[in-house]
Design brief:
single chain, alpha+beta, Nucleotidyltransferase, domain 5, 3 helices, 41% helix, globular
Amino acid sequence: MSKLKKDRLRYNRRRNRSKNEVFASGNRYRLCVFRSNKNIEAQIIDDMEGKTLVSSSSIEKTLSKEIKPGMNKFEISKIVGIILGERAIKMKINKVAFDRNGYPYHGRIKALADAARESGLEF
């Protein structure tokens, strides 16, 4: 088996394990994170209805005022987490289940989660 195939299988195992934990948590909304090499996106999803309730991304035009060209990805993740938390509180969403989507919980993923917690979300 090639290294690329092994890495993909390992990623899928991690992803499915974290998703199973989230679905077992009950009737909470799910905060799902997607990370690419350049950007980070997060959204709060209602799995019962299959709808996205709140979202935030580093490529939004509305965040261009807060995201400066010289900022690193870690700082951008914090801003995205704060904005997502504020939008969720406005929609009266307080408790969510964190779906890290198979990514390890450190670096940008942890920064986004901590910033969302600081803005009022409970995981």
